[in-house]
Each structure stands twice: as structure tokens, then as C-alpha cells.
Amino acid sequence: MIHLALPLTLVAILAGAGAYGVIARRNAVLVLIGVELILNAANLLLVTMGSVLPDTLRSGHVLALFVITIAAAEVGVALAVILALFRDRGHVDLSEPGT
Amino acid sequence: MTTLDVLFAAIGLIAAASAVLAVTTRHLVHAALWLVVTLGTLAGCYLVLGAELVALVQLLVYVGAVVVLVLFALMLTRAPIGPSPEHTSGPVQRVAAAVAGAGVAGLLGAVLLTALGGRLVSTREGRTHGVAEQLFGTWVWPFELLSLLLLVALIAAFAVSRMPSATGAEATSPERRADEAVEVP
């Protein structure tokens, strides 16, 4: 038995930290870390709900697995975009205008 | 407080603290390493919630692959070692970001806790047998589609990373046009 308040609080903290990271960071890789935190908050909510709701399809867990896979694909493409950006501009500072 | 409550509180506290550190630290590489701690402790949270398969996949894919990719990105973009304040934006934007982050956390927490917070539930739905049965039964076509998505993402990443000739030509073309304009008269 577990109180649902704890996982839900952690979901809120993770999503808030991720939102702060996406807005406050200037380095593209650090913005990506914020996005990962938001994705993990969504994942934790999916797993929590999947664990406690009587669902015969196990949607929560399966969708959490799907989100993890899509996050891996997203990070691969994002790394390629960041590398192209770095080769083009010489830096990955998102607050400076491009050349 | 039940045993699972205590376990989850201990692991979740580490996860929350390392998540906040990952977005606030001034060391670039430390941010990626704090992300490792966050993702690893989240795998522990999944274990406490009874989702063994998701916890293992989180460890394998997130800690094993995604963080390594992030570290590669940091290395390939010549991330400086040591504290570097220029990676975080100015104080005004940081305050705005803190307000936005606190707003997201507050609103999300308020809604979720009001809707579901008071419940004391048992975590019996996440056993690997049932999840695997559904994953390769009901969800098999989305699952196969995901492998196609991974292939497309791999090819797209390859294509994007081999694109610099086009962007390089675009970057130099204005100068060339300026040179021609000078030479014409």
C-alpha cells in the first residue's frame, strides 16, 4: 500500500524543474536536459496511474515504455541538430542570434 | 506511513533534489551527471511502484543510452570544464523561469493532489507477466511501429549530421554575392 500523494508531488517537482531548465538555460544541451526531466515527469505519472488503476490493458506501463523509446529517438535527432548547429555557428548558445 | 511510503519518500527526495541541481548547476558536465542520478533514482521509484519492466528499461535506455548521448553532445560541442555562468541566462529571465517553473509545479501538484492525493492504494497492476502479455498482444502494432520510428530517427540523425555543406554554402553565399557586387562596377 502506498499513498498517492508522494508520487504526484514528485511529478509536480520534476515538471517544474524541467520547465525552469528549458526557460533559464542558454546552452542547447542543457535545454535538452530540461526536456528530459519533463518527459520523466510524464512517465512517472503514467507508471503511477498504471500501477494503481485496475486496467486490463496495462496502458500506463506500456505507454511509459513507448515514451522512453520515443525519448531515445528524440535525443538522437536532437544531438544531430545540435552538432549541425555547432558546426554552422561555432557555439550552441540559443540566446545569441545566428550568423 | 507504510513501508512503501518511506521507501518512495527517500528515493523521491534524492530524485527531486538532483533534478533541481541538474537544472541549476553551473558546471555543464555536472548537469548531465545529476541527470544520471535523477534517472537512476526514478528507476528506483518505478521499482517501488511495482513496475519492474519499466524500471529496467529506464535504466537500460535512459541511463545507458540517452545520458551517454547527452555527454557526447557536451563533448562534441567543446563544453568547458569548470563553472561557467554564461550557460544560464540573465537574472531577469532566470526569475521569470523560476516563476514559470514554480507555477507549473504548483498548478500540476494542486490539480493532481486535489484529484487523487488522498488515496491509499495497493500497487499490484505492474507485474511483468501482465505487462508483457499486453505489450505483445494488444499493443503489438504500436510496438512494431515504434521500431520503424527508431529507424527513421536514426536515418534522420545521420542525414542531419551530414548536412553542413548546404548550410555552409548558405552561410558563405552573402559574402560571395557582396564580392561580386564589388567587382561588377
Produce a short descriptive summary.
The complex is a heterodimer of chains A (99) and B (185). Chain A has 99 residues and is an all-alpha fold.
Cα(first) to Cα(last) distance of chain B is: 85 Å
Beta percentage of chain B is under 5%
Helix content of chain B: over 70%
Largest interface: A-B, 80 and 99 residues
Mind telling me the CATH class of chain A?
Answer: Mainly Alpha
CATH fold type of chain A? Helix Hairpins
Portion in strands of chain A: under 5%
Structural class of chain B: mainly alpha
Describe the structure.
The complex is a heterodimer of chains A (99) and B (185). Chain A has 99 residues and is mostly helical. Chain A has one domain (4-89): Helix Hairpins. Chain A is built from 3 helices and 1 strand. Chain B is mainly alpha-helical. Among the domains of chain B are: 1-80, Up-down Bundle (Four Helix Bundle (Hemerythrin (Met), subunit A)), CATH 1.20.120.1200; 125-155. Chain B is globular, with a radius of gyration of 23 Å. Residues 169-185 of chain B have low confidence and may be disordered. At the A-B interface, strand 1, helix 1, helix 2 and helix 3 of A face helix 1, helix 2, helix 3, helix 4 and strand 1 of B. Strand 1 of chain A pairs antiparallel with strand 1 of chain B.
Keywords:
heterodimer; A: 99 residues; Helix Hairpins; 2% strand; B: 185 residues; mainly alpha; 78% helix; disordered C terminus; NADH_UbQ_OxRdtase_chain4L/K (chain A); EC 7.1.1.- (chain A)
Produce the secondary structure layout.
The complex is a heterodimer of chains A (99) and B (185).
Chain A: E1 2-3, H1 5-24, H2 28-52, H3 59-89
Helix pairs in contact in A: 1-2, 2-3
Chain B: H1 3-24, H2 28-48, H3 52-76, H4 91-116, E1 120-121, H5 128-135, H6 140-161, H7 164-183
Helix pairs in contact in B: 1-2, 2-3
